[in-house]
């Protein structure tokens, strides 16, 4: 949380900054203020996905009744509720060796409830996790609690495997948080050779082995500027939509869809409920394909009009993460429909602006 009873929560005098996923409320001055020459130099503070103390958004240069922002703060979209439960792994990307084992520590906490118990679920479709995948984590006097996350990597694996750790408050089940951990082999990742600015669509890196058009890559997993992009072409990696955030040299580019062909094949067709839901920018669904074939995942508005196609290509049998980025779509309820060999399924998702 960012607050200051006697002054500004954040004061920016030089350079630029990014703030994302915070509770910015209760400040005596501005929530975020830009001072001096920086105040007339355009948007030098990128601050999406924050709670400003009111569902209407930030005040000042913003449209709402929350903590104020000065001109030059890019604050959209904002969160409609405060950040409560958090899940924070030591690292969001772990380099692994086929046939080996690895571990890291994960911190759990709740900004809003000092004493609570969290129900933790680990989503691990390939069965890498060693130990329990559901357990309770008690929180006492606002202190975070840590738990180990251990995995055993299959022999012959090459690619990036994603494990999702989700925690829900027992006191208030509306408070939930999750984190992704990427366990990846060396050849499945790339590093940016230089900086990238918002609006660029080409990643000047050698595509990781097995990456295909329609796959999704994640830039700087776990970082404040983490974002996803859908691959639309190669040479380097060409994305279907412009980048939203700046990126620095050395940041990782990791495929979200696994390239491993030796994992467990789902027994039945399924499209999971999206998470998060409701959402403000992007949400993710899991698609289980028990057999290979042509798969389509499309989005429809309340009038039945197709407004987006998330997936439309030949797919191998397996489990896939399918991201839905809202882009310029207005608030409302949308239906996500998956059609593939084995079945058809529809899920509802709510977009909040």
Brief overview:
Helix content is 0%, strand content 44%.
Structure description:
With 353 residues, the protein is mainly β. It is built from no helices and 28 strands. The radius of gyration is 21 Å and the shape is globular. Residues 258-263 have low confidence and may be disordered.
Write the layout of secondary structure elements.
Elements: E1 10-12, E2 17-18, E3 30-34, E4 45-46, E5 58-60, E6 66-69, E7 73-74, E8 85-89, E9 93-95, E10 101-110, E11 116-123, E12 134-139, E13 145-152, E14 160-169, E15 176-184, E16 190-191, E17 202-203, E18 216-219, E19 227-234, E20 237-239, E21 252-255, E22 270-271, E23 282-289, E24 293-300, E25 306-315, E26 318-325, E27 332-340, E28 343-351
Parallel strand pairs: 1-3, 2-4, 3-6, 4-7, 5-6, 9-15
Antiparallel strand pairs: 8-10, 10-13, 11-12, 11-14, 14-15, 16-21, 17-20, 18-19, 18-21, 19-20, 22-23, 23-26, 24-25, 24-27, 27-28
What tags apply to this protein structure?
single chain; 353 residues; five-stranded mixed sheet; globular; 0% helix; six-stranded antiparallel sheet; mainly beta
